[in-house]
Amino acid sequence: MHTELELVTAPEVPIEAECLSPAKIKGLSQSGIEHLEMMHGNRKVRVGDFFRVTGNGQCSLRLEGDLSRVKYIGAGMTEGEVRVNGSAGMHLGAGMSGGMIRVSGDASDWVGPEMSGGRIEVMGNAGHMVGSAYRGQRVGIMGGEILIHGNVKNELGSAMRHGLIAVGGQAGDFVGVNMRAGTIIVMDGMGVRPGAGMVRGTIVSFQPVELLPTFSYSCWLRPTFLRFYLCHLGQSGFEVDDAYMGGRYRRYCGDSVEENRGEILVLDAR
Amino acid sequence: MSETKTTEAAADEPNIRIVEDATCTFCGCVCDDMELTVDLDANRITKAKNACVLGRAWFLQHGIEDHPQAMIDGREVPLEEAMDEAARILHEAKFPITYGLSDSPCEAQRVAVAINDLVRGNIDTTTSVCHGPSGIAFQGVGESTATLGEVKNRADLVIYWGGNPAESHPRHFTRYTVTPKGRYIPNGKKDRYVVLVDIRKTPSSPVADQTIRVKPGRDFELLWALRALVRGRDISPDIEGITGVSRETLDELVERMKNCNFGVLFFGMGLTMTRGRHFNSGALLALATDLNKYTHFVAKPVRGHGNVTGADNVVSWQTGYPFGVNFHRGYPRFNPGEYTTVDLLARGDADAAMMIATDPASNFPKRAIENLKKIPVISLDAKPTYTSRAARVAFMVATYGINTGGTVYRMDDVPITLRPAFDSPFPTDEEVLTGIHTRLKALRANGRKKAA
Ligand code: SF4
Questions:
Q1: Residues B23, B139: Cα–Cα separation, whole Å
Q2: CA A161, A163, A168, A170: dihedral to nearest 10 degrees?
């Protein structure tokens, strides 16, 4: 059983709804859920003002409708499951440490900022700053995984320190900027300046990439670990080409402005 | 205070006033050594001694237009009524935004922040479309800074990156950075080495001892390479292919930077508004920081509008953040991209807007303008603009620096007092904003009484 919330009244201005998270609705009755507070612009409103609620307090939450203007869905969640049947707004799963979020449509900017565990899966596209640190913070995501089947924009995984981010489509500029550690896999190409300021960590691209002058070629290899990751992604519905599995990768290390201990692996087309 | 004197003129001679040490607010240099000759009968400035071409045009073209003080939907109304209406709009809005502020004195900016604090709105300044990226970078990287006075007296290496001050800030070179003699720079230009980094030749180029032409959109790569070299790390052998600048030029520049006594990097919108944005400014600020291992090095943005620096300062000291600040929850939150005006309008998030001394209807992206047209707009400007003409409530305000006093910040964060030349029939933006603020307080108090 799950609790279902259907967005029936379109918001005039964006809604901020940290309450749309399993931990917050756990054990509440239907009217208890309807009375949870959200922000509609600068006004306090109740969940019941916008959503039709069915079911009660289960750890599994299903959201229906165009939620592209509903921010902070699943923020801070620690367990359970949120399924969004449609699109989700900014700050999806911000700071989450456990549980799972699945969005059937698109997500906006700041998907899973500063998360430390759990899993976010977006079937469509996502915006800027996916899996990144908030402005002014030194460290981004500390763990967990973010899987985006479509495209993302700039600053994917900025300052991330642990975990996995995979993108089935293309990524914008500055993939893994200031990265501390962790793995980012982008399947269909990325913009300029990947790994700028990275300290450690791995960025994988199956398409040729343009590198900064502070990255240098070190060797080629067939990384075993990548096969495990790719199997995992294949099971999650990503299209994994055989060439990715057995192919050889050129390894570039950088960023020499930092400690030169990060790596960018680029599939060798030959 | 300003020394103003009126000549004892004969009846048929014009009524003249000389204003000494007046301040030009046309660009971020905010030159405070103007000597204005004012014809009080004609309400005109006839001479602006010491001003550059831009400043002269700013002063001499200023007249008092015949225009209503306040309008609602294009119809002239008493000032009070327009303030009532503006307050009502802001009070009722769920997502009111305020934008502009870079051509207002600090006193007015302060009230604008107070209004947004009160109505739980969203305040943003034109910084978000010019040096906003630098604001993000300051927060991420930090800034090693100096006043222009220090630059004048000490800097022996001056580097301009992505700017053309000869056209945008004509007196920057002559007052502070290139020609003036300073305490430790006794011979002026002879004691300084000036480098210009840009994608093309500009009217500023002749001033420089060295110009470095970087390929368009490759500033970040070049800065990053410089950082690596300063830190003694290796860079790609194909650096010339990537950036258009040879390895020898870079090595030479790095040596020069490490060995100067006091270096300064000035950067303009050619850096902050090209691909990479805040990372570009961040790279430059980080380069200055890296160089402090060897010598004294500072970095400063060359700011455009008269008091955009004041806007950063006021919004920062009131909210803790320089621009793009949201008060929906009763406390300030900062998130460029989410709370910056262009993005808010492009997404259609706002439901009311107050535009202060800015004309987004003429220079924002199309989507943003379309959404702006759908919501009630309050405009305050010293001249009719596209925005004011389309606004629900439009106030015509006096021009700061010419008709009103107040404080503005020079681009190096030094506050400077304004000395007005002559009076204007229009209210100041501070007066209008204070009127709206007072009304909002009353509206809220009433709301509370009703609720109780
Ligand atoms: S440099 Fe700028 S502030 Fe100075 S006179 Fe010229 S326009 Fe005015």
A1: 31
A2: 0
The minimum-distance atom of ligand 1 relative to the CA of B23 is 3
d(CA A75, CA A205): 30
Which token pair is A252?
């570039």
List the single best residue of B338, B349, B371 to mutate versus A (max A Cβ within 10 A): B338
Q: Give the mean pLDDT per block of 10 residues along chain A (270 residues).
A: 91 95 90 95 96 86 94 94 96 95 96 95 96 88 96 95 96 95 96 94 96 94 94 94 92 92 90
Q: Per residue in B115-126, pLDDT tens?
A: 999 999 999 998
Contact A213 B239 (CB under 8 A): yes
Work out the number of other CB atoms within 10 angstroms of the CB of residue A246: 9
Summarised one tens digit per residue, pLDDT across range B157-216 is 999 999 899 999 999 999 999 999 999 999 999 999 999 999 999 999 999 999 999 999
CATH code for the domain defined by B70-130+306-445: 3.40.50.740
Which residue puts its alpha carbon closest to atom 4 of ligand 1?
B31
Distance in angstroms between the alpha carbons of the first and the last residue of chain B: 50
Cα B193–Cα B197–Cα B198 angle in degrees, nearest 5? 145
Q: What fold does the segment set B132-301 form as a domain? A: Dimethylsulfoxide Reductase; domain 2 (3.40.228)
The shortest CB-CB distance from A109 to any of B231, B334, B337 is to B337
Ordered DSSP codes for B279-310: HHHHHHHHHHHHHTTTSEEEEEE---STTHHH
Provide the residue ranges of all domains of chain B, joining segments of one domain with +: 5-60, 70-130+306-445, 132-301
